Amino acid sequence: MPVLVVGQGLKVLFVNPAAEQFFSAGAGHLQKQTLKELIPFGSPLLQLIGQALDRRASVGERAVDLSTPRHGERVADVVVTPLHDPEGAVVITLQERSLAQRIDRQLLHRGAVRSLHGMAAVLAHEIKNPLAGIRGAAQLIEESLPPSERELPRLIQSEADRIRGLIDRMESFGDTRSFPRAPVNIHEVLDRVRRVAETSFAKGVAFVENFDPSLPRVLGDRDQLIQVFMNLVRNAADAVPKQGGEITLTTGYRPGVRFGAAVAGERLSLPLEVTVRDNGSGVPADLVPYIFDPFVTTKRGGSGLGLALVAKIIGDHGGVIECDSIPRRTTFRILLPKAQNGAEETADA
Ligand SMILES: Nc1ncnc2c1ncn2[C@@H]1O[C@H](COP(=O)(O)OP(=O)(O)OP(=O)(O)O)[C@@H](O)[C@H]1O
Ligand SMILES: [Mg+2]
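Above: inputs. Below: predicted complex with magnesium ion.
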């Protein structure tokens, strides 16, 4: 990660090689500059430094825009930590994200999912009824045939059932009613998902739980949240090797971190972090930007609706989800608002 030490007067005192790369300049050059010359005018980073010095504590913010004409478009998660020595100096760590990938796509998923609402309703209405007729007819044909010839009508029935299942799943996208929300204990949700997974689709996979005991509750719908983590754990279980497969569930509370400086000018506080990580083969790089879109799948018999539904539910909860994947380490990270004393969360509950 790029790391800088900035002293009094915002003089750059130290940069590591990653920071040289980030600002496309050598240490010798950077250390002659002040931070102001490296970041956009009025950047929130300057406020963060002020806050860190005032509070004598680390402060962080997600998705800070560091774009400049010289360095191009840059967005990074920033953490600023004050140092004792030299007095007034701070350490700045940056974790780069690409604006388009991290924020716009997030909104795009919601758009794609929304356009499905209408389609799902039409499909449900126009296909389910005739499908039931087709299935019933196939059943009658089956009964009238000698046992040796029953295979084809059975195939019609099982395919009809598969289509019906697909439509049922799509219909859940059409549900735009606001749902009842209550404080939900995410650890209880994760435990339950793990227990179900261990006895069914994730037999033989090792689960590791890294739970932060101080985690507050999330305001949401327990069943939908179970659905979210069930889908993520199922994908993880599909991806891990038969031998040595491992799925890690992690929770953390990050009250200082704000997200979404660029989303509709709103600053969201999403302090609850839940990650689902697996040591499987990883998501192919060219697929990563699309995996939350509906019907994107690499699996034989997959519908590609799992992650689209996950993105919709997380969006409905006011949260965000992102995916980082390299072989042997694929992480789905979810950030959610907390339940208590959040006027904006309870207002529309
Ligand atoms: N943990 C993971 N590791 C590797 N690839 C993944 C992982 N999670 C998702 N993917 C990729 O993303 C694709 C989309 O996932 P999604 O859950 O939306 O659909 P699916 O699992 O293929 O089908 P469905 O969930 O409907 O049965 C998957 O086909 C897979 O290629
Ligand atoms: Mg899936």
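The chain is about 40% helix and 20% strand.
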